[in-house]
Amino acid sequence: MRVVITGVAGVGKSTVLDIVKNKTSYEIINFGTLMFEMAKAVDLVKDRDELRRLPVDTQINLQKKASAAIGKMENVVVDTHMTIKTPNGYMPGLPEWVLRELKVSAFYLIEADPELIQKRRNSDPSRKRDEDTVADIIEHQQINRSFAAAYSIYTAATIKFIENVEGKPDIAAQNIVKRLMQ
Ligand code: AMP
Ligand code: MG
């Protein structure tokens, strides 16, 4: 089974997934890392935050290659994004051809209070995050729900919205682990 976990930057997805990793035999695959390694190998980017600023066609190419690689793996949790915020607008993280490769059974959207997300982004010096306002973050989380609904029509995958409450990432993680154990 393949499940997909998404959440905007700063939502605390990595923290939740670190807990999931310790509680299941599923491998956690970071879609962005696969794309980044492919892009870096041909000198397209130096850091992962440059990926979303590449020409959209280039991003789609990398996205196709990454999804083909993941499509060959069984029992994985895919750490990715419903949408990528590019300078040209929102790009689908899981367009139809990616969904066909991945055959997703469940989508999890990790969500959090937008002000908390903004605070977390501002205190993370390791990434070149976008300078989003709270209203921008609200819009991004909303659009991600809409894209999830669209993806579900292709896949019949279930969708679950999980709030990552500050200081309680284990609750969000438990929700996901429960499904992986079924
Ligand atoms: P992350 O570390 O999860 O934020 O991923 C790093 C970057 O990888 C993102 O900012 C995107 O540029 C790219 N990325 C991740 N998943 C996808 C996807 N499904 N489709 C296109 N780009 C993606
Ligand atoms: Mg992350």
Structure description:
This protein has 182 residues and is α/β, with parallel strands linked by helices. It has one domain: Rossmann fold. Helices cover 48% and strands 20% of the residues. The chain is built from seven helices and seven strands, in the order βαβααβββαβααβα. The chain has helices at residues 13-23, 31-41, 56-71, 96-102, 114-122, 134-155, 169-180, and strands at residues 2-6, 27-30, 76-80, 83-86, 89-92, 104-111, 158-163. Strands 2-3-1-6-7 form a five-stranded parallel sheet, sandwiched between helices. Strand 4 and strand 5 (89-92) form a beta hairpin. The N and C termini lie close together (11 Å). The mean pLDDT is 95. Bound molecules: adenosine monophosphate and magnesium ion.
> What is the multimeric organization of the chains shown?
single chain
Terminal Cα separation, in Å? 11 Å
CATH topology, by name, is Rossmann fold
- Total number of distinct structural domains: 1
Overall number of strands: 7
Biggest sheet overview: 5 strands, parallel
Write out the CATH superfamily name.
P-loop containing nucleotide triphosphate hydrolases
CATH class: Alpha Beta
Helix content: 40-55%
Q: Which spans have pLDDT < 50 for at least 5 consecutive residues?
A: none
Our count of helices gives 7
User: What share of residues are in beta strands?
Assistant: 15-25%
Q: Which ligands occur here? A: adenosine monophosphate, magnesium ion
Overall body shape: globular
- List the strand order in the largest sheet: 2-3-1-6-7
CATH architecture annotation? 3-Layer(aba) Sandwich
Coarse structural class: alpha/beta
Mean pLDDT: 95
Elements, N to C (H/E)? EHEHHEEEHEHHEH
